[in-house]
Every structure is written in structure tokens, then in C-alpha cells.
Amino acid sequence: MGSKTNFMKSNNQRGEWTTRDELVSRISDGLGWRDSRVLEAIELFSLGPRSNFLEPPPGMSPGDIYPWRFNRALPYLRRPLILRRGQSGPEILWGDRHLETARENLLSLCLTGRLKARSGAMRAFIGKRRNKQGKDFNDSVADTLRDSLKLPTKRRVRKIGKLRFDNLGDIDVLAADASRKHIIGLECKDLSVARTPHELLDEVTHLLYGDRKHRSVVAKHEDRIRWVREHMSEVLKFFEIPARTGWRVVSYIVVDEALITPHLLKCPIAVLSLEQLKKGLP
Hints:
This protein is an alpha/beta fold. The chain folds into two domains: 3-111, no CATH class; 134-278, Trna Endonuclease, Chain: A, domain 1 (3-Layer(aba) Sandwich), CATH 3.40.1350. The chain has helices at residues 20-31, 35-44, 96-111, 120-148, 197-209, 217-230, 232-238, 261-264, 274-278, and strands spanning 17-19, 46-47, 81-86, 89-93, 153-157, 159-160, 163-164, 171-177, 182-189, 248-255, 270-273. α1 packs across α2 (35-44).
């Protein structure tokens, strides 16, 4: 919805308010939607009076009403339509510039995978976006090792020769440094989805420490690195390197932006930003 569609012009042509019935009629005629669908959309993007401000509406959590929480379902930024009681029935108020800002914010949430989706179709879309972001970041890390550090590089390694990682997932990037006799295993994590302190804490906890129900990404990566150490001869053959002694396996976590957390809390694996990686491995 927006001023370009001319669905939201009031009788005074100021584009600031109209009756809900008129808005439903204009949108329904313009888009060919059923009135019930239009009403559902208006409800999704509108704020109205509540009998108790601190009591979340049905289907929402207390966090959705706390002003200090980011990415919640009830801020004015997410709901640019204001519903009020008028003399002739419900009325809708809006500001054109804020409506455009809300549209840009919603689009950003969808494309960055930060929207807390409710429908199966939107959850599937968000999942695909996050997977693509992760894959693109993995490729950036692999390209850096190959092009900047001139190392033979494999990406998304699920097996070595005919040997598969049994229930261990895959190694995001695997490289060989002949000058150091190092096999390098990298776990890549794009944290750009985590824009707020709370979101970043969740991501870092998942990455480095895990919780009572889930092992951390680092712990799972260490399992894969242990497997690589136990199959060193096959790994060297995988890189077409003659089997020799003196090779060792090293591992790193690579993130899109430098983190302060590993400097404050103990981390079993060195954490590098992509910019640090471009300058060379430690």
C-alpha cells in the first residue's frame, strides 16, 4: 500500500485519513482482493486502542509490547496505520512518508531473514534467504583463501574421497597450506542477520557455547576436525598431495564482523573476521 496506488486518499485528498470501509473498498477494487483479505491486511499493519497496554494481544508475547525490544510485532514502524473510532465508524490514519519507511523496513526484514514469520510459506522463504546468505558468505571465505592466500580450497565438504562424515554435517571450507603443512578447516558464520544486542547474543551463544538442549556450532565443528585428523592420509590424497609426515590440522571460526565476545570469554577455536582472514592466517 502507498500513495502511488491512490488507494489511500481521503476525501480531502491530503492522504492522511479515511474511513476503514472506504479504504477496504478502494484496495479491494484496485487489487481484486476479497474484503476479508483486505481487512486481514489492515489488521496486520494497524495499531488501535487496547484496554491494557501491557497485556499483549492474542497470539503475541510480552516481548512484543516492550518498547525497548527490537524486531517486535507491535511497534509503529511495523504498523504504520492508526485505527481510531470516528463518528461514522472506524477510521484509518497514516502519514505517507512513514508508510514508505515502514515498507522499506518490512522489505529489509524479509530479505535479511530477520522477520519472525508465522505462515509456513513465509517461514520457507525466510529459510531460503538465510541459507543463501550463509552460502554466499561461505563462498566469500573460500574465495579469499583461494584468490588472496593462494591456497587449494574445497567448499561444503561432505566427504573425503569415498569416506563420508557420518552424521557430522559438512565442513564449510577446507584448505591445504603446503608451506606450513597445515590442513585448514573453517566454520563460517554470517552474523549480519543479528542486528541488535539481543539477537547478536543469541547468535554468539549458538555459535560458541550452545545451551542445555543444543550443542554449539564450535563443538560440532571440532567433531569434524577430529575426523579429519583421524583420516589425514585420505585428506592429503583428496588435495592431491603426496602423503608425508609433519602435517597437522588447524581450525578457525570465520565471521563477517569482528566479535568482542571471544576476547572476553574462553573460546576453544580462534575466531577471525573476514577482513582479518584477508590479511593472512595466524
